[in-house]
Amino acid sequence: MTDDLIVRRLGANEASACVDALSDVLIDCVEGGASVSFMLPIARETAVNFWRKVVDGVAEGERVLLVAETADGQIVGTVQLITAQPENQPHRADVAKMLVHRKARRSGVAQRLMAEAERQARHERKSVLVLDTVSGGDAERLYERAGWQRVGEVPNYALMPDGKFCGTTFYCKQL
């Protein structure tokens, strides 16, 4: 899939036009068990409202929104850089909401999204990236293979979509 995959940054207008497709990816991920801040059952309105807020952040210059699309323009993955940080951390960004549709997993989509997120972070003059992920999940291997440093784990940090507690592992990367 990665041969004909396009990973690109969306501006606010284009992101606004993609809210439905981005909502499809978010809903699929939550329904597939991803702990990404949402609980089951996730209403479409909840997903749409989330993405509208993301679009606002893109418009305000507080976020970078990346998408992975198939050759026919179908969005199969996304990730964000939260670039708006406190004034004593202008060099830092948070990586957030790495989402890959279940039908596109294990095909290099997440790896391509992360590589582009790092490239965009450099473009935004960020030298430290931070992220968190479910402890023991598949994403940990992705981040470690990409050179991210495991910082630590917080047990029972969040809930899985079904309501069970999960630990969260924090990572950082110096660019």
Provide tags for this entry.
Aminopeptidase, 33% helix, alpha+beta, 175 residues, single chain, 5 helices, seven-stranded mixed β-sheet
Structural class: alpha+beta
Q: What is the distance, rounded to the nearest whole angstrom, between the alpha carbons of the first and last residues?
A: 28 Å
Average pLDDT rating = 97
At the third CATH level, what is the topology name? Answer: Aminopeptidase
Q: Name the strands of the widest sheet in spatial order.
A: 1-2-3-4-5-7-6
Q: Proportion of β residues?
A: 25-35%
Radius of gyration: 15 Å
> Judging from the principal axes of the Cα atoms, what is the shape?
globular
Would you give an account of this structure?
There is one protein chain. This protein has 175 residues and is an alpha+beta fold. It has one domain (2-174): Gcn5-related N-acetyltransferase (GNAT) (Aminopeptidase), CATH 3.40.630. The chain is built from five helices and seven strands. The protein has helices at 12-17, 19-31, 44-59, 109-123, 138-145; strands at residues 6-10, 63-69, 75-82, 92-100, 128-134, 149-159, 165-174. A hairpin with a 5-residue loop joins strand 6 (149-159) and strand 7. Helix 2 crosses helix 3. 33% of the residues are buried. The model has no long low-confidence stretch (mean pLDDT 97).
